[in-house]
Amino acid sequence: MSPAAGPLGLIAGGGQMPLRVIAAARAAGREVFAVVVEGWGDPEDFRHVPHVVVRVGAGGYAIEQFRAHGVRQVVMCGRAQRPSLLAVRPDAGMAKMLLRIGKAAFQGDDGLLKAAVRVLEEDGFEVLPSQAIVRDALPEPGLLSAAAPDARAREDIRRGIAVVRALGMVDVGQCAVVQQGLVLGVEAIEGTDALLARCAGLRRDTPDGQRDGVLVKLVKPGQDRRVDLPTIGPVTVAGAAAAGLAGIAIEAGGTIVVDRPATVAAADAAGLFLIALRPEELTPTETNP
Amino acid sequence: MSPAAGPLGLIAGGGQMPLRVIAAARAAGREVFAVVVEGWGDPEDFRHVPHVVVRVGAGGYAIEQFRAHGVRQVVMCGRAQRPSLLAVRPDAGMAKMLLRIGKAAFQGDDGLLKAAVRVLEEDGFEVLPSQAIVRDALPEPGLLSAAAPDARAREDIRRGIAVVRALGMVDVGQCAVVQQGLVLGVEAIEGTDALLARCAGLRRDTPDGQRDGVLVKLVKPGQDRRVDLPTIGPVTVAGAAAAGLAGIAIEAGGTIVVDRPATVAAADAAGLFLIALRPEELTPTETNP
C-alpha cells in the first residue's frame, strides 16, 4: 500500500463498491487506475479517475494497460454478469489466457472470476481484496441496526443458513429468503434484488401486515475471499423492506456492506434488523419436518 | 380398487392432474368423491363429479364428508399453496389434527402434505398415489420425444442433478435450469412456470438463437411418493420452449407427466427433448471448477 506499490489497479463492475474502493484508496493517498468492464460498470461514474473501458473479452489489453500505468496490485469488485464464450470474443492476450485455463473459466458461478485471479497472479500482479482498501466494509459479529431478530426470525435465519450452505456446496448463489420456516426463494444468477422482488409476491400473510421473514446472505464454502464476496447495501435493505421482511442476516467478516452508514440508516428507518453472524454461530439445525 | 373399496376419495388441488385421476378412475368403472380445496382447485372443473369445496383449514369437515360418502381410499394431488397458520383457520377436527402433529405441519415445503397423509392414515383411510390411478403418469426410463439431448445438454443435465439434489437435501424445490454449465435459476415455492419465465431473461446468447440449456426436475430424497410428486405437462414444455431451452430431464418413475400424449406432442412441435432418467444414471459429477 506504500506509494512504491504504484497506483492501485481496479477492475470495476457495477454498483457502488468500485467507487468506495476509489474513495478509500485516495483518502489513503493512493492513486487508482481503473479498467471499467463494458456493460458492467458505468464509465460516467469513473470520469474523474484515470481509466479505460474494456470489453470483457479484452483481458490482454487490460493487462497491457495495467503494465503501462505501473500497476502492480489489483482489486476486482462490483457487480458482474457471467458472459457466454460467445459474448467474450477474446482478444489475442485473452485467448492465450483461456487456453491456459480451459473450460473451467465457464463453469460454476465463479469460473471466470477465479480464472481472472489466476491469470493476474501468473502475470505477476498481486490481487488484493476490496476490503483491504475499504476498511469498514466487512462488519464484525453483532447487531448493526437498532432492531434485533426475535425468536421466530432466528429460526428463519437458521433455516436460511442450512439452505444457502447446501446451495454453496454446489457453487450456486449466496442467499435465500425464509419466512415462517418456508423458503420463499433461493438465488442463482438473477441477483439479490430480483430475488427480493419476487419474494414480495410469494410471502404468506401476517396479522396486520406485520413484518416477518429474513434474507440470509453468506459466503460460499471455498469462495476466494479476494473477489466476488457477497454484498449488501441500501438497495438491498429497500428490497427487503418492500418484501415485508423483518431483517437481514449476513456473515461477519464475509459479506460486504457497501456503504455502511447509509445501509444501517436505511435499515433503522424501515425498522429492519441487520445482523452480522460469526461463522461458528451459523450452525444449521435439522430442517426436515 | 375393487368396487368393495367404495368410491375413490380425491383431495384436489389445481391443474390437470386431479381431472386425470377422475377420468382414469371412471374409465376403470370407479366413482369418485372429490374434496376440492378452496383457492387451489377450480370448482368449475368438478361440476360433473360429486364434490364439496372445502377451505384448507376445514380438514375435520373433509374427513366427515369422506366417511359420509363411504370413501376408504384417498388420492391427494394437484397444485397446492403452502398456507400460513393464520390462513388455515382450523375447524374443530383440524385443530385436533394440528395439535397431534404440532409445528412440523408448517415446516419445510412438505410439512402440511406429510401431516395430511399421517392424519388420513391414523383415521383409517388408505392413501394411494395418483400414479396408481393414472397408469401412464410415470414414464419408464428413456427418451419420450423425437429430439435427444446432445453432449452439451447432457453436461447441463448432470450439473442440474447435482444442484437439485443439494436443494432436496434441505427440503427445498425440485428443479433447476442450467445453461452452458451455469445455473440460471433454482426453484423454491414460486413453481416451475415462474422459474422458467424468469430464466428466459437470464439466459446467455447463443449463435443464431440456437436452443440450449435444460430444465431438470426430480423427486426430493425422502419425499413421500404418494403425494406431491414433481409434475410436468404441456405448460411446462411451453415455458421451457419460451425460455430457449433445449429440453427437459425428469426422473423416471418419479416425475409425473400429467397428460403424456399432449406433453410429448408439445415437445416434438417445439423441437425440445424430453427424457426420463433412471435414478442410477443420475450421478452428479464434480461441479466446482
Automatic annotation (TrEMBL), chains A, B:
Question: Which residue numbers delimit the LpxI N-terminal domain?
Answer: 8-136
Could you name the domain of life of the organism this protein comes from?
Bacteria
EC number(s) on file = 3.6.1.54
Entry keywords, A to Z:
Hydrolase
Domain LpxI C-terminal, residue spans: 141-275
Pfam families named among the record's database cross-references: LpxI_C (PF06230), LpxI_N (PF17930)
What are the GO MF terms of this UniProt record? hydrolase activity
Note the PANTHER family from the entry: BLL4848 PROTEIN, LPXI FAMILY PROTEIN
- According to UniProt, the name of this protein is UDP-2,3-diacylglucosamine diphosphatase LpxI
What is the organism of origin for this protein?
Siccirubricoccus deserti
Write the lineage as a comma-separated list.
Answer: Bacteria, Pseudomonadati, Pseudomonadota, Alphaproteobacteria, Acetobacterales
Gene name for this UniProt entry:
lpxI
